[in-house]
């Protein structure tokens, strides 16, 4: 039993130490050096917080997030009804297509809209390239699935008798929806809206690929101040401001999510499409065909466009680093770097995440329960801080003793593992929590050792969730851009960094290579998630 207690103690200490060293220390060091190093400069801090540029980028961040959230809800709620509450042929295919955007890296989404709205694109005549409207459309594209899946899952669980009773009493379909259905859906809509707002306010990759040179958000301004202007103090103050905004959003999301959970809905109800569903069906079809399918098809088509003709030249050029660049990795080498770094980051996140998920899934009481809640909240901290801030903290804190990882090949994988770790834990914990405590107690009563209980009771459930956890971790690491943009060296660049680098240089060949690289990145991410989903079904 001593070895067993030691193992559980290590399962707690290991993730806590990992977060302390590779999250709290870099973030804290960044804030210390930027704000307090050399003395607390209240006047300088006030100057940054009250400057016109700070108000501008903060306002643009909040407006961008608000408009993206409103847009996702307006088109997502009708989609939730059609795709989850109604039944029709090819419904599963429509759901899968609606979900595709969320599994794509943000850089791919940005490049897809550039291919549609930018030079040579089908909708170039609209003049939306590198405008805030393009950014908002991409945010709605990316977050559509969040609203559809969150609201749709609840909608198909609502008891239809309440609506039927309202209709029997003379209420019109519109009145029945507004007075009966909408109040029941409000927690799910609000919860998904909070999550979408979080994603929209930390959309660094989308803004870098779609925004105009003069357009900026808090994340792009942090990058600009720290890399272009070398003003770490201003960057640190802006990071602190963003942390406050994001954590406030996370707290709202958690509160609203708990309200959804307390409804305890179980039964699934669906009805065939009727003539009365023509408006939500039309909105959903138009959204899927124009907002989702059109950018993806445009990206694929544009990757084969060479001058006035078609061909594979853009893909052949991936063996080079592009025109106008002196040295550095080729795109093919960047693909290899992404696969290798993503694999290392995935392994690291699993080594830390699996023991932690086992600890968090145990049913405990008393002081241990309070400690478990604190640990569960601590592991979500990386979600409350932008990947840009994480990368900035790494670049500040881990380039000198006692942790000099400046030239270490593990620097980027560790940063990506920090970003992926909460997703791994959140993927595994619900699966392990589904184990009835009585099963473990019964096995122990029959003489099974703690290790045997872990292997025979927890093991099969762990395998069920492991495929999805690996998929999320690997796909997230593969498409990670925020932290990696600070840390990747010219000879060790990843594919997302290389794509943005190509877009930032003039030249038709660079533009075409960015399109081809984005297609490759999308295929890699989609293949990983498909393999993870297949692995999950095989373990059922």
TrEMBL record:
Subcellular location, record wording: Cell inner membrane; Cell membrane
Membrane topology: Multi-pass membrane protein
Record-annotated membrane-spanning stretches: 7-25, 62-84, 96-117, 132-155, 176-199, 235-257, 278-301, 341-361, 373-398, 410-429, 461-488, 511-532
Major location (coarse): membrane
Keywords assigned by UniProt, alphabetized: Cell inner membrane, Cell membrane, Membrane, Transmembrane, Transmembrane helix, Transport
Top-rank taxon, per record: Bacteria
Domain (ABC transmembrane type-1): residue spans on this chain: 58-253, 335-532
Protein family per UniProt: Belongs to the binding-protein-dependent transport system permease family.
Stated name of the protein: Iron ABC transporter permease
